[in-house]
What we know:
Elements: H1 2-11, E1 20-26, H2 36-49, E2 51-62, H3 69-75, E3 82-88, H4 92-97, H5 104-117, E4 120-127, H6 134-145, E5 151-156, H7 164-170, H8 179-195, E6 199-202, E7 205-207, H9 214-220, E8 233-235, E9 239-243, H10 247-255, E10 261-265, H11 268-280, E11 286-287, H12 288-295, H13 297-312, E12 316-319, E13 322-325, H14 333-340
Parallel strand pairs: 1-2, 2-3, 3-4, 4-5
Antiparallel strand pairs: 5-7, 6-7, 8-9, 9-10, 11-13, 12-13
Helix pairs in contact: 1-2, 1-10, 6-8, 11-14, 12-13
Amino acid sequence: MIEAIIIELQLRKQEYTGQTVETIYFGGGTPSLLSNEELQLILGAVDTHYDVIVDPEITLEANPDDLSVTRIKALAQTPINRLSIGIQSFFDEDLKLMNRAHNSEEARKCLKEATKHFENITVDLIYGIPGMSKERWIQNIEEALSYNISHISSYALTVEPKTALASFIQKGIVDNVNDDEAQEHFHLLIDRLDEAGFIHYEISNFGKEGFFSKNNTAYWQGKSYLGIGPSAHSFDGHNRGWNIRNNTRYIKTINDGMLPMEIEHLSVTDKYNEYIMTGLRTIWGVSLNKVEKDFGKSYKDYVLLQAQPLINEHLLYIDDDKLLVTKKGKFLSDGIASDLFKLNLE
Length: 346
């Protein structure tokens, strides 16, 4: 698999001609299982075939059960300079309900050690968990803050079909997700992290000054990116591509000198809809000038027309020619964005 990833990096270098690599993200699956030598092989291939800035943001995604004290110390010896840790909750009952592999003690031990070696750490927290009281959610936030981390990503629990949680809910063993409780948790999070000096720069992301995720920010701002490996997605500004999921087929195709990728060409309307979706989720909002410049005056007229009822409901507002979501509208941002979408008639 490592060899195939390195070959894919070589095969696709022409796609990034004239561009510089600013961020590298090891995510999806269990990249923390890679040895230091394997990480160095992949990073070496990136350096060989691409123009990389002097100090790129290099993130590794991991769960607490993968990050032993020994592993954290070893990772600190690599070019990895940012950890994304899937804490989810500091309560065992929540972790069991979500079928997580780690327990709360592993989460605490992992963070205690990680903060000794890495300045740039983000943790994931889940709210809206059935049975989670307001007090328990506040405890989760406070415990995360006690480690003096610089970034928090937080998401409402979604119940995936064919999971143990979905089965428990269907049988009445566990209550279903309550949207009102989730919204209350979300607003408690916003207020507490604001007090703690975090900037709510994207609906699910909070960072201290200088610690926004450069990788995710590039995605939200519509920059191009390469996704390497099985299931990885890519975007070049006009087309979206994704690699096949099957590991064996991925390796065979790469070894045959071909790319295991499907490509979708995005129409003007597709790009407009994506810009609306990502722009409304961030503090940078949707630039009305950009809408007119990139998509045409008819799109600007359309978005203003569709936005007016939402402005009247105090869910959206316009500031300095940018369309932004109000605090009241943040929890509903995806639904608000869909009201501004245009049907693809191209």
